């Protein structure tokens, strides 16, 4: 078994016995113990009482984080003509149609968000097996299949985060950087939790939010008091 480094051991000792904290206390603990040489991402994982294999229990949505993600989001847009020009002007990193499809089919996926105009979906649909597992497939429910490509690109670049429940019913996302002020991280976390709460599916039974955990990229996780985090 690999030995823990001094920083890792110290962080775990600092987190020992700390659970069901307020969001404020959890963020303070994470920030004070983030010692990596890079600006770590603050990550959230929400364990939900759903089974995403059933259509009426799928949790999916999008939320604009008040203080952004701190990440440079690379955006690809499937569009032609004037809409392709709009996407480029709005700051899209990659714009194309069949050529973009062929690039992706060739194994190159150099983007974090994929947007498409409705007329492009027959082409994009051929990429379902490639983009779907990476949660990159454009979807009208989260605003990535739209004629307003400029607004979609702007939102993606400005801190919009998509979320989708995985097979085990867990939703996770990056909600900022440890370098963010504590208040900004807290606001982002509360916005994300609120969006997941509003996305509760009709088929969910029993306890919806079972556990919420926060961590930094290289740090241990700490659980948050669900009742406090979801209180209006």
From TrEMBL:
Molecular functions (GO terms): rRNA binding; structural constituent of ribosome; tRNA binding
CDD domains: Ribosomal_L1 (cd00403)
Alphabetical list of InterPro entries matching this protein: Ribosom_uL1_bac-type, Ribosomal_uL1, Ribosomal_uL1-like, Ribosomal_uL1/biogenesis, Ribosomal_uL1_3-a/b-sand, Ribosomal_uL1_CS
Subunit structure, interactors included: Part of the 50S ribosomal subunit.
Protein name: Large ribosomal subunit protein uL1
Keyword RNA-binding: yes
Gene3D superfamilies referenced in this protein's UniProt entry, alphabetically: 3.30.190.20, 3.40.50.790
Family statement drawn from the similarity comment of this UniProt entry: Belongs to the universal ribosomal protein uL1 family.
NCBIfam families registered for this protein in UniProt: rplA_bact (TIGR01169)
The organism of origin for this protein: Pontibaca salina
Signal sequence extent: none
Cellular component terms per the entry's GO annotation: cytosolic large ribosomal subunit
Entry annotated with the keyword Ribosomal protein: yes
GO biological process terms on file: regulation of translation; translation
Chain's role: Protein L1 is also a translational repressor protein, it controls the translation of the L11 operon by binding to its mRNA.
UniProt entry keywords in alphabetical sequence: Repressor, Ribonucleoprotein, Ribosomal protein, RNA-binding, rRNA-binding, Translation regulation, tRNA-binding
